[in-house]
Every structure is written in C-alpha cells, then in structure tokens.
C-alpha cells in the first residue's frame, strides 16, 4: 500500500504541483481514507520526499536503459531528452521550480542526489563521444560537465512553465553539443535536430 500511495502521489504532484495537491486529494483519488495515508506518512513533506526519490530512481533506470542501447553519444543525449519530455509532459509547472519555491529543504536533498548521478552520466557521455570521434579530443571533460549541469539545472529551477523549460533544454543541448563537436559530430547533431523538428 505504501508504494501505491507514493506512486499515486508522484503522479499527482507532477501533474498538478507539489503545493496544490493535498492529502485529501490523494486519498480521494485512491478511494482510501486520509487516515490510511497518515499510517505510512506522518506529513505531506515526508510523502513528497519519498515521491521525489521514486521519480529519481525511475528517471535513472530509464537513462540506464537508454545508455544500454548503445546509441552514439549525441543520439543518446537526444533520446534521454525525449524521455524527459515524455515523462514530464503532463506537468504545467516545472517540478523542480515548484520544489525550490515551496519546499527548499527537499529541493536541496534532490539536488545533492542529482549532482552525483548527472555528473557521472554527463562524464560517460562525453568520454564516449570523444572515443567515437563525435566530440573533440582536447576537451576538458570536467569543465564541460560543469557547464552543462549548470545550464540544464538553471533552466529547470528558474523556468516556471514545463513547456518553456523543454524548449530551452533542447537549445541548451544543441549549444552544449556544438561547443564540443567535431565535424562528424556536427553532422550527427544536424541529423538529430532534423528528427526532433519533424
């Protein structure tokens, strides 16, 4: 039951916002009493924490599945972006923006969790791209990882509309890729952009 509550709460939080969804809403959606929810979660903050943890795990499981498909490094980034777009398309307001505004302590926990995971993903992607001759060999990988991380999370936490955030993220991905790409990489980027816009 606990996992079902977390799952339903995650859906509602992403769809309607962390602030606006109440324990009554979750109970009503699940046709259970509010008392049942409080049996597992003594307050809404704890439920939000557990929900964000579940979303984090799901996101990174899907990322690992995409990476395992062995796309080239640039296509891999576009596939990951597509997954995020699909996953959060129901949200009107950017979930990270809401967390930062209404639950700053939970937001800090989420960000410290994301930092390590994302840095590892970005580093592996850049190293893979260098090996595939899509990214330049003279890159300072650590610096480019920091640049991209700062860019993406700045968009996510400062853009209210999820739709606007999605558009900006595509532009950030293009910017990031162009900055690193070889001529072969630019050709692959153009191919991916064409696929995205059709």
Automatic annotation (TrEMBL):
DNA-binding region: 22-41
Keyword vocabulary terms for this entry: DNA-binding
PANTHER family: ACREF/ENVCD OPERON REPRESSOR-RELATED, ACREF_ENVCD OPERON REPRESSOR-RELATED
InterPro entries linked to this entry: Homeodomain-like_sf (IPR009057), HTH-type_Tx_Regulator (IPR050624), HTH_TetR (IPR001647)
Keyword DNA-binding recorded: yes
One Pfam family recorded for the sequence: TetR_N
Protein name: AcrR family transcriptional regulator
The keyword Nuclease belongs to this UniProt entry's keyword annotation: no
Domain of life: Bacteria
Organism name: Flavobacterium granuli
Stretches assigned to the HTH tetR-type domain: 1-59
């Amino acid at each position: 039951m606990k996992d079902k509550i977390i799952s339903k709460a995650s859906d509602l939080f992403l769809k309607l916002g962390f602030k606006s969804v109440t324990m009554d809403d979750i109970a009503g959606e699940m046709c259970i009493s509010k008392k049942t929810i409080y049996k597992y979660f003594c307050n809404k903050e704890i439920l939000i924490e557990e929900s964000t943890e579940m979303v984090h795990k799901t996101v990174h499981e899907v990322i690992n599945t995409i990476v395992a498909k062995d796309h080239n490094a640039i296509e891999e980034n576009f596939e990951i972006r597509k997954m995020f777009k699909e996953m959060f398309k129901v949200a009107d307001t950017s979930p990270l923006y809401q967390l930062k505004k209404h639950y700053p302590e939970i937001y800090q926990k989420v960000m410290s969790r994301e930092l390590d995971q994302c840095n590892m993903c970005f580093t592996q992607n850049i190293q893979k791209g260098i090996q595939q001759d899509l990214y330049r060999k003279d890159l300072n990988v650590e610096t480019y990882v920091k640049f991209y991380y700062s860019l993406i999370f700045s968009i996510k936490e400062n853009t209210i509309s999820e739709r606007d955030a999605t558009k900006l993220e595509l532009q950030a991905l293009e910017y990031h890729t162009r900055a690193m790409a070889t001529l072969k990489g630019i050709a692959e980027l153009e191919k991916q952009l064409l696929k995205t816009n059709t």
